[in-house]
Design a protein that fits this description.
Layout lengths: L2 E5 L6 H16 L5 E6 L4 E4 L15 E3 L6 E4 L3 E9 L6 H17 L6 E2 L6 E5 L2 E13 L2 E9 L19 E2 L2 H4 L7 H14 L1
Parallel strand pairs: 1-2, 3-4, 9-11
Antiparallel strand pairs: 2-6, 3-5, 6-10, 7-8, 8-9, 9-10
Helix pairs in contact: 2-4
């Protein structure tokens, strides 16, 4: 799989990011551009996927950006690493395998930091369990159009967890949200490159 790697240093406007991916999707359909993996951060925003509802909003004063990705309501912001992609699945047509690949990438990479996480077939994302508490550390949200997959996944590194108190994250009432710094305070500078490397390897396997 021929993939372009793109990294943005400054926070990227959410609408511009989605528009960029939708343009790339069309270019891939027309065989004019490569597949894409793009890492970035957003400024603080709340987005609602195709399955979210108003009862998942606790603080009614916040603005919700409606997104065409799957899933419910979530928060983006500084300290959260977002991995967007535009990937051609027309040869394999296997969405479940793509989700499993994302899960394996995040779980295996975090294990190199001595952090044990797991996937949950009933609640999409990557989870961390401390005693009896289960909290989400990475979210996944996809959109498939003509067998091109886009949107992606995000990992909480040291983002503001207070923002999640304004919503029911991902519509899940009985679980929380955490970040890597809360789990284990260490250097995550190279996390970005490790995720990219492992994601590409797993996509090709």
């Amino acid at each position: 799989m021929d993939i372009e790697i793109k990294k943005s240093i400054k926070p990227v406007n959410y609408y511009k990011a989605i528009n960029f991916m939708e343009v790339r999707l069309q270019q891939i359909l027309e065989k004019k551009k490569k597949n894409l993996i793009w890492s970035l951060e957003h400024n603080e925003i709340f987005t609602g996927g195709t399955c979210y509802s108003d009862d998942q909003i606790i603080d009614k004063s916040i603005e919700i950006i409606k997104s065409n990705r799957g899933g419910k309501i979530t928060c983006h912001g500084p300290g959260q690493l977002v991995f967007y992609f535009v990937l051609d699945l027309r040869n394999k047509k296997d969405i479940r395998k793509l989700i499993t690949t994302i899960e394996k990438t995040v779980i295996d990479t975090l294990l190199t930091y001595n952090i044990n996480t797991f996937a949950d077939k009933d609640n999409i994302g990557i989870w961390y369990k401390n005693k009896k508490e289960v909290k989400k550390v990475a979210a996944i949200g996809l959109k498939i159009k003509k067998w091109i997959a886009y949107h992606g996944f995000s990992i909480n590194i040291e983002n503001n967890l207070e923002q999640y108190k304004k919503i029911i994250p991902c519509g899940i009432f009985d679980k929380g949200v955490t970040n890597l710094k809360m789990i284990l305070d260490q250097d995550y500078t190279r996390l970005h490159e490790k995720i990219i490397k492992n994601f590409i390897l797993n996509l090709q396997s």
